[in-house]
Amino acid sequence: MAKQKSKKEIERIETIEYFQSLISERINWSMVGAQLKKIMSDNPNYTYKGIQYCLWYIHTQTNMPIQSIGIVNYYYDEAKKYYQWHKRIRDQIKNWNLNDETVTIIKTEKPEIIFD
């Protein structure tokens, strides 16, 4: 019978697959898996989804080429702040009440001045 994968294992695989999609060469799954395991053990507050977001942030927002998953250690906090900022903006937009009062603006045209 096939063994069911845990949510954490699925997220780990998705993170490695996302990393693979960002680099042009074929990755060594066991090496990247070991690096990812070390990152997670050294930083217990990191999550696989957070690492995946960090990779997205590095790729799209800083336009830096990604060669190794080890770059996550240097950008994780910055990516987290960026995510929190965007979340705060989304929440503010969601909770924003547009006041439906109608305001009429009357624009008057000044007569054209003609020099004879």
Please summarize what this structure is.
The chain is mainly alpha-helical. The chain has helices spanning 7-22, 29-42, 48-61, 72-94.
Structure keywords:
116 residues; mainly alpha; 4 helices
Outline the low-pLDDT stretches.
Answer: none
Helix count? 4
Percent of residues in helices: 55-70%
Radius of gyration: 25 Å
Shape: elongated
Number of strands: 0
What this model shows, in words?
- The structure is a single chain.
- By secondary structure, this protein is mostly helical.
- Helix content is about 60%, strand content about 0%.
- It has helices spanning about 5-20, 30-40, 50-60, 70-95.
SSE arrangement:
Elements (H helix, E strand, L loop, with lengths): L6 H16 L6 H14 L5 H14 L10 H23 L22
